[in-house]
Amino acid sequence: MHSLARGKPMVLPPTWRLWVGMLFVVVSEQRCIFDEVQAQAKVVQAAPTELRLLQAMNRVGRMASAERRMKLGKPALSTLASPQPIRIRLWIVKESGNLSGNEKERMEAVVEEAVRVVSSLLSVNRVKGPLLLSRDINKYCKFLWKNSSTANYNRCGRANSNYRTETCLDVTIPDDHLDGCDIYMSADSPQRTELRPKGSGLPDTDFLLYLHIQSTDKCRAEPGVLAYAAHCRTDAQGRPLAGVVVICRDRLTGATYKRQAAVQTVIHELFHVLGFSKELFHTWRDCSSTSQADGSGCSHRGKVTHADQSGQMRIFTPSVISALQKHLGSTDPELGGPLENLDAPLGRVSSHWESRVLQGSIMTAVLGDSTTVRIDPVTLAALQDTGWYIVDLSRAQSLVWGDGEGGTFGSLSTCQNKSTFFCSGSGFGCHFLHLHKGACQTDQYLEGCRVYKPFKNGVSFISFNVTVKIMPTKVGVF
Ligand SMILES: *[C@@H]1O[C@H](CO)[C@@H](O)[C@H](O)[C@H]1NC(C)=O
Ligand SMILES: *[C@@H]1O[C@H](CO)[C@@H](O)[C@H](O)[C@H]1NC(C)=O
Ligand SMILES: *[C@@H]1O[C@H](CO)[C@@H](O)[C@H](O)[C@H]1NC(C)=O
Ligand SMILES: *[C@@H]1O[C@H](CO)[C@@H](O)[C@H](O)[C@H]1NC(C)=O
User: Fold this and answer.
1) What's the predicted TM-score (pTM) here?
2) Which of 11-25, 262-276, 404-418, 451-465 is predicted with the least confidence, judged by mean pLDDT?
3) Candidates 145, 147, 152: which one to mutate for ligand 2, based on the most atoms within 8 Å of Cβ?
4) CA-based, 20 to 30 A from 184: which of 233, 390, 432, 439?
5) How would you classify this enzyme at the top EC level (predicted)?
6) In three state form, how does the secondary structure of 303-339 look?
7) Up-side HSE of residue 373: CA atoms within 13 Å toward CB?
8) How far is the CA of 247 from the centre of ligand 1 (A)?
């Protein structure tokens, strides 16, 4: 092989051609199955009574701070709650113990790095006191008081005797993380019996991430799955409070482990569970008309996803539109963030960006080589538009793909035209970042549009029947 590598230009015999052809496997790509997983996860939202209480508390707090401001003559800044970097607490599930000490340390370091990156980007109104997750009333309760004119309306009247535990996807939530729950004997009486006591909760926590490193059926079912995730608890304003990330043990810990790709995979999953999810799009909040930093004056955005004229589903929220306009160099006011249509039934949405338009974004369904993946401005804009976070948009990594190419870039009608980004035929050329050589290819997500896809690590060549060159393996780090 190596003698071949240094070879002078030569004509390969047919058998060699076949052998060379077999090496030209495109960098293996990882598909994200978030939507399938999230659909199986039960999400529990904190009860609205807590919301009313919170709002009342905030009102009192605001009045107090307004008074203080007036006394001190300070500018009108809410001192009650100003957003702070999100504190994501990692809880490693016990059964993840079957890793070698080395592997475990490595995975924890990867997740900690991903958490650091996300915390440096997103700020929230911090949870006051220890974080306690709500129990699912539909699980522990057999019967709710349903008369709205009674005091115990929507409270539990009788316990479900089969009630045991709460789960987050397939992780059992420790009782200590859970709020207590009570049974009210009659519709109007405040008399109650405690079904489960209140746990002590988690201090200094705004989001609880259950990390499970395991080889599950979902991992085994598809070779491209590295990790998957779901959120399972939200606060009364819809912000996710807890979720689980399952890392497929054999994929991210074995011989195929690559640190940067692993970190990116965890960041991708974290962005899903924190809000970039089709299950959450309709709960995003509009905080533009409130001056309250604590988010109490936000309103529901309602439905934010709609089809454009070509049938492509897009997210139409202000920051997303302006980020995409800026990126593509377009003033089109209808330039919503396009969503991947492949894994979604017609007219439905998925939780990924359309890869024809936003190739290289960390939120496309398939992440390419780690050197090509970016935490891009459109993704950060989407997180900003959830209304739950203040996002440091200045830290976005610029996306080369499509930069300044106009509002129709990446559409099925224009991608056939030869450009810096798209190619036609099946010849060889440079990947658009000029880091890799590749072949002009399409895939299921590109729907007939073709791009130069990098060859598998280390194998490159100039012309099929002239030179075969083996390059040293390049591990992607940026
Ligand atoms: C632990 O890992 C080994 C292989 O490394 C496997 O054979 C064994 O079944 C695993 N045990 C558990 C409890 O998962
Ligand atoms: C609901 O409760 C109120 C007050 O106790 C009572 O007057 C009313 O009849 C109840 N309604 C129904 C439908 O039971
Ligand atoms: C791209 O191709 C379409 C259809 O082939 C054509 O109508 C259009 O003018 C082309 N656009 C550019 C910028 O070349
Ligand atoms: C292979 O070589 C022949 C003759 O040298 C040339 O005509 C042909 O274009 C080459 N094929 C490729 C794929 O480069």
Assistant:
1) 0.79
2) 11-25
3) 147
4) 233
5) hydrolase
6) CCEEECCCCCEEECCHHHHHHHHHHHCCCCCCCCEEE
7) 22
8) 15
